[in-house]
């Protein structure tokens, strides 16, 4: 990770869970991390914790609603003005609503598409353009995907969510192909965790049902996914790790 010291990384959804863990690890490795979320106060608290811990990098909080393209573009403009641009983009933000295909609300489907697919694509485009205009040829775009982007579980509540994650799988491979055709060494990676003990299930279900899901087996922790991010970034520049699939040992699907 030494070659990334002092470089700029954007982490979306950095206020809690995987995003917070990734942001903290990158700061620990000396990166300038732009952490964005709607709840910017949590990122401000995390930034203070990183500073108190004596980490060599810095976490810069950005308030951004990723379902709003104007806010995303404004954030990238601010990053350009204040920090020149983005060298690493971690598209972590994602959400799920319990909206089955046969009875779900269109508003829930649209929200999942806006955040899980469109915001990821917009951030990817803007990050690439930021790298291109500064002649950054060794950047990295990492999409935090899901095992739900590789198989469909028999749970109607997450079928539309799974469709958005299948889109992330396709988008990451498409991105890799376009980067290759552009004759750049910017790399693209998809990281697909299984069940991770975060606030994700609590937001999808009620607290009791979420707790039951997390206590049945030994789940992945957010730091496990953060470690996979630093592993991917640490690979030699000529090595592209295209897809990382990880899940708890005890997880069946």
Automatic annotation (TrEMBL):
Give the enzyme's EC designation: 1.1.1.270, 1.1.1.62
Query: What InterPro entries does the record tag this protein with?
Result: NAD(P)-bd_dom_sf (IPR036291), Sc_DH/Rdtase_CS (IPR020904), SDR_fam (IPR002347)
Q: Which Gene3D superfamilies match?
A: NAD(P)-binding Rossmann-like Domain
- A GO molecular-function descriptor: 3-beta-hydroxysteroid 3-dehydrogenase (NADP+) activity
Has the keyword Oxidoreductase been applied to this entry? yes
The pathway that the record names for this protein is: Steroid biosynthesis; estrogen biosynthesis
Give the reaction(s) catalysed: 17beta-estradiol + NAD(+) = estrone + NADH + H(+); 17beta-estradiol + NADP(+) = estrone + NADPH + H(+); a 3beta-hydroxysteroid + NADP(+) = a 3-oxosteroid + NADPH + H(+)
Q: Name one Pfam family in it.
A: adh_short
Is Disulfide bond one of the keywords?
no
Record's keyword terms, sorted:
Oxidoreductase
What the entry lists under SUPFAM superfamilies is as follows: NAD(P)-binding Rossmann-fold domains
PANTHER family linked? DEHYDROGENASE/REDUCTASE SDR FAMILY MEMBER 11 (PTHR43115), DEHYDROGENASE_REDUCTASE SDR FAMILY MEMBER 11 (PTHR43115:SF4)
What the protein does comes down to: Catalyzes the conversion of the 17-keto group of estrone, 4- and 5-androstenes and 5-alpha-androstanes into their 17-beta-hydroxyl metabolites and the conversion of the 3-keto group of 3-, 3,17- and 3,20- diketosteroids into their 3-hydroxyl metabolites. Exhibits reductive 3-beta-hydroxysteroid dehydrogenase activity toward 5-beta-androstanes, 5-beta-pregnanes, 4-pregnenes and bile acids. May also reduce endogenous and exogenous alpha-dicarbonyl compounds and xenobiotic alicyclic ketones.
UniProt lists the family membership as follows:
Belongs to the short-chain dehydrogenases/reductases (SDR) family.
What is the name attached to this protein's record? Answer: Dehydrogenase/reductase SDR family member 11
Q: Which organism is it from?
A: Larimichthys crocea
